[in-house]
Amino acid sequence: MALLQWQGDKSFICRLKFYVVMLKKSTFLLLAGFFISLFVEAQVLRSPDGNFQMEFSLTNKGEPSYQLNFKNKPVVLSSLLGFDLKNDEIDLLEGFQVKNSETSSKDEIWNPVWGEENQIRNHYNEFLVELKQVETGRIIKIRFRLFDTGLGFRYEFPVQENMGHFVVQEERTQFAMAGDHTAFWIPGDYDTQEYDYMESKLTEIRSLMEEAITPNASQTPFSDTGVQTALMMKSADGLYINIHEAALIDYPAMHLDLNDQDLVFESHLTPDSQGNKGFLVTPVQSPWRTVIVGENAAKILESRITYNLNEPSKIENTSWIKPMKYVGVWWEMITGQSSWAYTDELKAVKLGVTDYTQVKPNGKHGATTANVKKYIDFAAKHGFDGVLVEGWNVGWEDWFGNSKDYVFDFLTPYPDFDIDAVRDYAKAKGVQMIMHHETSSSVRNYERHMDEAYQLMKDYGYLAVKSGYVGDIIPRGEYHYSQWIVNHYQYAIEKAAEYQIMVNAHEAVRPTGVARTWPNLIANESARGTEYQAFGGSKANHVTILPFTRQIGGPMDYTPGIFEMDVFNGSHVNSTLANQLALYVTMYSPLQMAADYPENYDRFPDAFQFIKDVAIDWEKSLYLEAEPGYYLTIARKAKDSGDWFVGNVNGMAGRTGQVSFNFLDPSKSYIAVIYADKADAHFKSNPQAYEIKKFAVDAKSVLKQFSAPGGGYAVHIKEATKEELKGLKKLK
Ligand code: NOJ
Ligand code: CA
Questions:
Q1: Residue in 438, 469, 524, 558 to alter for ligand 1 test, most ligand atoms within 8 A of Cβ
Q2: How many distinct structural domains can be found in the chain?
Q3: Domain that holds residue 612
């Protein structure tokens, strides 16, 4: 294959274009690198399969720029790269020369501790360009990695004489779109991702922004055309394009601000309280900016770019990190039936001063020893690994709204929560306890107590913590996604790892694949979770979008499993019961809750069986049907049992899908138990209309299955003997 081509540039007669077609382990590339450093202004990198082509060049002003094509279709048109710096007269935007460049490639397999599959291939071609700003002598490097599913690139700032510390005013990375794509977006916001998704053309974002910004306990939208990543788009010519970031470490989270005249997105970093967007010290690098692309939506879900761009695990012994299925004292508070708070008498609480023995309990406190024991019994009876308890610790009477620094100590239980008795009871029943730390966004206070709090967990045998960041951040003026607070979330993960504790952080910054490096980060919420179904409802197609957006960065503690859609406070859960079952397959997470009340599971024991059976750790995953906003069908093979599970979630309109079971072993026979919407099911008017069917199936079987509006189906496929198959109808 030809490695080099020389070709005259049509627009600049004297400019040479230099193409490098990547070949694995080519010594020739060394030579190419030499030539590049001397002459080249435009260089081409191809993906291992040759379908992607990324071109890097300097404009005639010396501005770094790149563009990306997929099978000769433009994905990112020529887009500029660089930084505005604070206090520097000369920004890192132009006046650059190529000083050096290198190419390399990698093809390796690694095994995640938990995941959608047990092997991940990390296969890419890399181009690293070193740029020198002539006037200042400053050096930046840009590292591009091109995979068969898209592009990742980051900025690197090596140690150098002219740049030690610097403050970013704005990162100026552009993503110029090739058309007015359809986007699945939520408002760009420095504090929350808890929004319903909008589906619109890029040019319609501005007019829909007001409608999109629904209320939240802490929120700071920043622009009429600002959106969050992971941003999912679809082009008119059938390309699916996803922009996100990977390895967000010691840097503010990136949003995208759209210039809707030119259809160019530009990075918009989360500022700190002073408006600064990152204090950097060399050597340092930005997170990776990712553009995942596919000819169908399933390709976006298959991509492992985000994890691959993160470092391998820093935790050597990972034996304590275990996927968990759990129940908890939670939905009853979310729906308003019980309370986190112990009393209604206190207007304000001062930890260490307020005497809880002097106040009258409100009679609806959820985390009482007796109630917790009930959940432990339920978990033990039905084979759940863990029980979460919220509202166990003092301080909830005024936990948010008052910008209070010292709301919780994470150590002191309420008088009616006997932490010793609970530990002993859980131990006797073989159930693990999950700790809850609502930080009330008082981040400094949490850090102050963190060692003691984690030690308490250790002492009482809690393996995992659910943390939360509701309300405005303290230190006041900081935002949930600024560099300082991003560093806090990371600190909490690493500190927890020291104590061998798994972390599930709600309201923290949305994940960016950091769980590869720190696999004790077993989940985040960091998006609009099931709780919003009790706060007035979420769009019924929400769950068909989340896997393409929020979940690009990592698992979500979505807390599915609601069987009673009309909840205590009068809110309605926009979902059918069968859809709730499917979520255990479609919303990948090594931490899965069965969120409804035990009594509601007792009402539907046949459907509950699926939640009991479904696996939470997978050997492989297949994305069978995918269209964000409309439908998603995933099949997964369980790591331990080898059983297959299929989940389908559906959008607003009824639909009959068709999936082949050709993923099954052709030499084997199986039983499939199908939990599906009845023909008259509907998320609003008839959510509990489900039916359970059993069939004999094999690799030749094809399932044609109806899903109601806001509905879906779940299937458990298990290998079966001839005996077990007797009398069962065959699914053809
Ligand atoms: C918001 C979380 O998402 C929810 O799960 C939790 O119960 C509350 N905060 C209280 O911490
Ligand atoms: Ca939340």
A1: 438
A2: 3
A3: 527-732
